Amino acid sequence: MFQRINDFALYLFIFTIVFEAWDPFGLKGVFTIARIAGLFYLASSLPFIYNRLFANETKIILLSLVFFLFFYTFSTLRYFQPGTPDQSAFSMALFQNIVMFLFITNHLLQSNRATKYALVSFFLSVVLMGLLYLLGIGIDVEIELEKMRLTLFGENPNMIGNKAVVAYLIALYFLLTPPKNNVRKSTVIKILFIATIPLFFSLVLASGSRGAFLIFFIAGLFALLLLKLPVAYKTILLVTGIIVTIYIFDFVYLKESVMHERLRQTIEEGEFGGRDIMIKNSINVFKDYPLFGVGRIALQTGGKTRDPHNVFLAVLLASGLFGFLPFLYFNYKVFNKVIFNYRLSKDFFYPVLAITLLLIMFKSGGLITTKFLWFNYAILFGNNFDN
Fold first, then answer.
1. Between residues 309 and 103, which one has the greater pLDDT?
2. If DSSP codes are grouped into helix, strand and coil, which group holds residue 321?
3. At 114, phi and psi to the nearest 5?
């Protein structure tokens, strides 16, 4: 019974990750829906707490995460000024997400079916977000370039685009690898997953995220490349995919919208949302503070230490080499396991998810403290090839 409750709590928590910024009680993020669901999951995991925290497979990365968190905090303490409004030297959000990562990863490793149920839970949550968007529920907007960018339930536009891309990838996974024991059921599932793809694409377009727009097509092309198909079929699908991608890109580029304007600025003016300037500033700051960085809080201010919208650069800037190297080692172990499992199973989904996550990490700011990032880490490291 405890195991079933724990499984349900896991899927419920994953469902709320899509709405992780939603704060219906107006408590400045103290009790968001996702945090409440996370506490429920942690409480239901107490009977299994040792296995959730110290399983053999995660021991190899646990130490790297401890060192990363230590230097991330230490670097912030070096420059922390007591009394800073709404700030703390210790990032409770990062700590909670690392703990949650360990719990979810070990949960998935100990259950052969949990990974796919977890993916379905996240997928259904993004479907719900898309339907609410179509119904006009929970919508707010950001004004940029005199046009509106979508925000939903407090989530910023770029994160909406990121989550829609991952949900689209999950749809491709279940669409291209349907159940084999029931042809009728297989056909119904295909139709349902195909129907969700335009919904996810509409979220990407409404978000105005150029990165999510490009990753949407890159992920699809990589999925076709890694799919187990005869060379002739794969070639036909790839050529068709490229033609469709070019057609859709041309259509979006010509249609008057915030996405059109942002793409036009990138193509015609070489404008990248200031990311090129932020990256140059970050490299210059790193040269001055190579070992310990400038601390986490400095990234939340303006000027040269502003978050560079790149997770790896942000970690390097905030914690220096002492924090960056353990974080880099952690990423190496996660992505190395994905490669190892792919060699055994030839399952295209996890390598494509890994590539998608890396692309998102290279273009997103503030991602290190989001549940979305650590959930994807858990899916990648917690998957066994025979799941």
1. 103
2. helix
3. -65, -35
Model confidence at 274: pLDDT above 80: no
Task: Please say if the pLDDT value at position 285 is more than 90.
Answer: no
Cα(88)–Cα(80) distance, rounded to whole angstroms? 8
How high is the pLDDT of residue 354?
Answer: 95
- The reported pTM is 0.87
Each residue's pLDDT tens digit, 318-367: 888 999 999 999 999 999 999 988 888 888 899 999 999 999 998 877 78
Tokens of 349: 């989904």
| CA angle at 311 for the pair 305 and 317, rounded to the nearest 5° | 35
The residue type at 285 = V
Give the amino acid at 372.
Answer: F
Task: List the domain boundaries for the chain.
Answer: 2-54+91-271+346-382
With contact defined as beta carbons under 8 Å apart, do 372 and 17 qualify? yes
What's the N-to-C CA distance of the chain in angstroms? 22
Q: What is the largest distance, in Å, between two alpha-carbon atoms of the chain? A: 65
Instruction: Report DSSP state, residue 293.
Output: -
| pLDDT on residue 265 | 58
Q: How many helices (H) and strands (E) does the chain have?
A: 15, 2
Burial of 191 per CB tally in 10 Å (0-12, 13-18, 19+)? exposed
Residues 216/201, Cβ–Cβ less than 8 Å: yes
3-class state of residue 38 by DSSP: helix
Q: Describe the chain by its helix, strand, coil percentages, rounded to 5.
A: 75, 5, 25
Q: Torsion angle, CA of 22/117/162/250, rounded to 10 degrees? A: -130
Q: Show the tokens assigned to 307.
A: 């978050």
> Taking 70 as the threshold, does the pLDDT of residue 143 lie above it?
no
Helix (H) or strand (E) holding 375: helix 371-382
Using CA atoms of 157, 173, 132, 136 in order, give the dihedral in degrees to the nearest 10.
60
| Beta-strand relationship, 147-152 and 139-144 | antiparallel
